[in-house]
Amino acid sequence: MNLVLTEEQDELRASVRRLLADRSPMSRVRQVIQTPECYDRTLWDRMAADLGLQGMAVPDTCGGAGFGQVEVSIVMEELGRALVPSPFLASAVLATNALLTLDDEDAKRELLPSIAAGRVIATLAVAEDRGSWDGSDVATTAALGGDGWRLHGAKTLVVDGLNADLLVVAAQAGGELAFFTVDGSAPGVSRTRRTGLDLTRQLASIEFSGAAARRLVCEDAAAALSRAVDLSWVALAAEQLGGLQKCLDMSVDYAKARAQFGRPIGSFQAVKHLCADMHVAMELGRSVLRYAAWAADEAPDQLPEAAGLARAYCSQAFFKVAADAIQVHGGIGFTWEHDAHLYYRRAKSSELLMGGPAQVREQLAGRLAV
Amino acid sequence: MAPEELPDFRARARVWLEVNAPRRSDDDRAGSGAARRWDLSSARAFQARLHAAGFAGIAWPTAYGGQGRTPADQRAFDEEARDFDLPGEFFTIGMGMCGPTLLDLGTEEQKLRYIRPLLSGEEVWCQLFSEPGAGSDVASLQTRAVSDGDGWVVSGQKVWTSVARFADLGALIARTDPDRPKHDGITMFVVDMHAPGVTVRPLRDMTGGATFNEVFFDGVRVPQANVIGDVNGGWSAAIRMLLHERVAIGGSTQPRRGATFTSLVDLARSRGRSRDPVIRQQLAELYVRQRAVHLLGTRLAQEARQGLSPGSRGSAAKLAAAELARFSAGVAAELVGGDAIAWDSSDPEAARWAGAVLSAPAAAIAGGSNEIQRNIIGERVLGLPKEPQVDRDVPFRELRVGTQTGPATS
Asked: Thinking of the domain A7-116, which architecture would CATH place it in?
């Protein structure tokens, strides 16, 4: 087991951090979230052109960099730290993981190069009205007619659903789970932007009324979905850890700078100990995340447990730290102008996005054969 | 002869352990087999064989009885030893704290005199720091060492001393100059635990057991040659020893005893509670917390191997482990219900879950309370300012200490 990053991986982190500091400071984030797209196309193109981030875990035979989930987790952590509104989770994580876990080599060679290059934004549509990412809860249906497959049904919580050029959709085809691709702007696809708790992430609901679809080859779609969700849990946990780290850093800086009763508030144990607990959450979260990312690349048999562990720990830890960060900041912390609420919103939204805490714990208990 | 390579050393250690050491059973992992297996004389005999075979003080200098190998060799041995039940409890204070501090600060004579018998199990060591009035604030200790010309006379009381009733020697810190501020008037000594005037009493804790002791010093003579480091320089020696302690504790993060996830899953099954959704939530949460604590320990160890010293970051692991102990005891109690509050006295395993409940509070206090760990994290890791200090530049004798109402010493 390796829980420490290599020098090359540290360099990747530094490069991503530099790019985001330069191109996506919080002032820019606040502008971008006012736009309907809720992401910065110029930054997206730079991420692809300068650093090849969108294809980090895509094999080089499919136009990617051929690295692994550890590298994806580094990118996600930095994106989370800087709270970058970006279709990276949708395209480079969710849709890419789904395509990579399926058995459709033609589709991979055809679709992944443009996704890896950032030219096409893809997303993954699984959850429906119950919000579940379990294949057995999928009710959307696919029917084969004379002119190919057609989809009927409704999806929710589709990340960057309006931005996506390409939708990867889970649906029931003759009683078995299957995956399809659909053109985001095809007739029979109706996309609605939802008002989000998280102002930095575009979430959509999508209705399919006979949209033309391409069925992807897959032996065991349920197993593929489960693995794709596990990999995405790890990446999302990395993003959550990045947000947690930023909330901790903001709180410590503020506790040093803000004086009351004649001394910095960070010298009072009530505040200092709150910051110490945030730090412990960061250390534990980082350890769990490093393990899960390592398992994703090196120990696939450990991935279901490791991904559940990372998902469960980082979700709750980020939200707790984001809430405590507001507490440390006091009055300024719950104003609109302060950034703390943007992280708090992101934290709660991410905690619930792919299965809430109770659901994740129950799934984890099952995986641990409790 | 060519130097032995690491894989060969590891293999030789494994073979030796297979032949000479009892295997840790699954029951030991959950229960407490080790405490019952070894007594002082069998532990000493084992340690002597371990030393003779070249597996004690693996990375310590050969001049003093060590093996002169590398820390990587020591880690390899420790990894192999995990599957075996070694009598560590008698020797960890000496090996983990007193020995390394002597190697750092001791005179040549001290190192030649003390290290070899420490490694061979001939002499057991304890550490004499805490006092009734000096817990979190150890530097406010009141045990006095008064010079009588060619040596020192020690009087006072220590508490929370592990292994003291088996110990031959102790590393003692005592006040040698109460007119200086508290940190500046302390000296560290080697003290003979068999000397006249030393009394050791087991200290019964809230579990009913007595892993700690109280140690009383009544005019105990200590030779000048037993001063470790400088006279009145004992505080920095103590800090050094505490750093070694943190490293020693940080190395043992694998949960072995008490209310572990595995033992509680078995318990839930045997009680027909494993389908209960509330219990499943708690077990999953226990798994998450226990794994997280363990993985942090592993990560800090891996970073240390690459030359990044954990330093004060070990406090996060210590704090998280203490909170885990309380949480897991709660899950255990919820699972066993009535049997955690009343059990058949003839059942040797029955008291185990009550034991988890009763031992959890100590985890949050012993070895530095949760509050002290949070201060360390806040001040030394995060760089937050200290509380205003009222005792820093005041002669020790003018300070108020512990729960007494008057000044520290008269």
From this structure: Orthogonal Bundle (1.10)
Q: Compute the nearest-CA separation of B335 from chain A (Å).
A: 14
Residue B178 tokens read as 């109460």
**Contacts across the A-B interface (CB distance below 8 Å):** 127
Residue of A nearest to B264 (CA): A370
Is B295 close to A287, i.e. CB distance below 8 A?
yes
Could you tell me which CATH number the domain at B8-123 has? Answer: 1.10.540.10
Judged by a CB distance cut-off of 8 A, whether residue B201 touches chain A is no
For the segment A174-220, what is each residue's pLDDT rounded down to a tens digit? 999 999 999 999 999 999 999 999 999 999 999 999 999 999 999 99
On chain B, the residues whose CB falls within 8 A of the CB of A276 are 319, 373-375, 377-378, 382
Q: Is the minimum CB–CB distance between A258 and chain B shorter than 8 Å?
A: no
Q: What is the dihedral of CA B134, B138, B139, B142, to 10 degrees?
A: 40
Q: Any idea what DSSP says for residue B31?
A: S
- Please indicate, yes or no, whether the overall pTM of this predicted structure exceeds 0.80: yes
Ranges of chain B whose pLDDT falls below 50: 28-34, 251-256, 410
Query: What's the CA gap between A188 and A210, in Å, rounded?
Result: 5
Contact A291 B295 (CB under 8 A): yes
Q: How far is A245 from chain B (nearest CA, A)?
A: 12
| Domain range list for chain B | 8-123, 126-233, 251-368
| pLDDT tens-place string over residues B177-190 | 999 999 999 999 99
Per CATH, the number for A122-219 is: 2.40.110.10
pLDDT in the model for residue B347: 78
**Which residue of chain A is at minimal alpha-carbon distance from B280?**
A365
Structure-token pair, residue A246: 């930023």
**Residues contacting B349, CB < 8 A, separation 6+:** B31
Which class is domain A222-367?
mainly alpha
Please tell me if residue B319 touches chain A, with a CB cutoff of 8 Å: yes
Residue A174 token pair: 């003759």
Which residue reads 């971008």 in tokens? A32
Q: Determine contact: B303 vs chain A, CB below 8 A.
A: yes
Six-digit token string for A10: 């540290």
B377 touches chain A (CB under 8 A): yes
For tokens 């875990």, what's the residue?
A57
Nearest-angstrom CA–CA distance, A155 and A151: 11
CB distance from A5 to chain B under 8 Å?
no
How many Å lie between the alpha carbon of A159 and the closest alpha carbon of chain B?
27
ipTM of the complex: 0.96
Cβ of residue A241 closer than 8 Å to a chain B Cβ:
no
Decide if A357 contacts A250 (C-beta within 8 A): no
Active site residue B387: no
Which residue among the candidates B4, B123, B245, B387 is catalytic per the annotation? B245
**pLDDT the model gives residue B338:** 87
Which residue intervals of B83-139 are DSSP H helices? 88-93, 99-105, 108-119
> Of A125, A131, A80, A129, which is closest to residue A355 (Cα–Cα)?
A131
Question: Which of A352, A350, A345, A353 minimizes the C-alpha distance to A29?
Answer: A345
CA nearest to A359 within chain B = B281
b/e per residue, B175-209, with b = 16+ CB within 10 A? bbbbebbbbbbbbbbbbbbeeeebebeebebebee
Bridge partners for A205 per DSSP: A192
**Closest Cα in chain A, distance from residue B363 (Å):** 17
In chain A, where the domains are located = 7-116, 122-219, 222-367
d(Cα B145, Cα B220) in Å, to the nearest integer?
9
CATH T-level assignment (fold) for domain B126-233: Butyryl-CoA Dehydrogenase, subunit A; domain 2 (2.40.110)
* Cβ–Cβ < 8 Å for A297, A70: yes
